[in-house]
Amino acid sequence: MAIVEGATETSGIGPSEESAERSVAGEVLRLFVGLMGSMKEHLAESADSLGLSAPMAQALMSMGAPCSQRELAGTLHYDASNVTGIVDRLEQGGLVERRVDPKDRRIRLVVITEAGIELRKTLIERVFASGQALAGLSPDEQVQLRDLLRKIATPVEFP
Predict the structure, then answer these.
(1) Among 54, 91, 113, 121, which residue is least crowded by beta carbons within 10 Å?
(2) Residue whose C-alpha is closest to residue 109's, from 82, 89, 91
(3) pTM to 2 decimal places
């Protein structure tokens, strides 16, 4: 078997034929997906410790100004029919209220309550304060990673 420069004997694939799956960019993206999975687990555990489901926590964290359930569904990237149950459970817990939209009485707005604001603060602190996802990095490496991510991403801001 002839060996092409940069190829391995076992793969027989030359550098120009290297698949996206094995590229550096592909690996970085797979690592991001793995990190997102870890963050979703951490969010779910934090939410559960506060008596919330992960979708309830996501809704609560995203709520700022009063919005319709359809707008909330868009923000969460959920189907509007799924948001009804989430808002029902948040309302039962006293974390949100439904109010008639003064501009269009056919629409009910979802409004976060004071109790919801306080629980959201606690949830955000639990999810982001620990930094457990970055525990394997030194402080200098965390700064380097932050600086690199700033080049390709916009940080999520919470209301």
Answers:
(1) 121
(2) 91
(3) 0.77
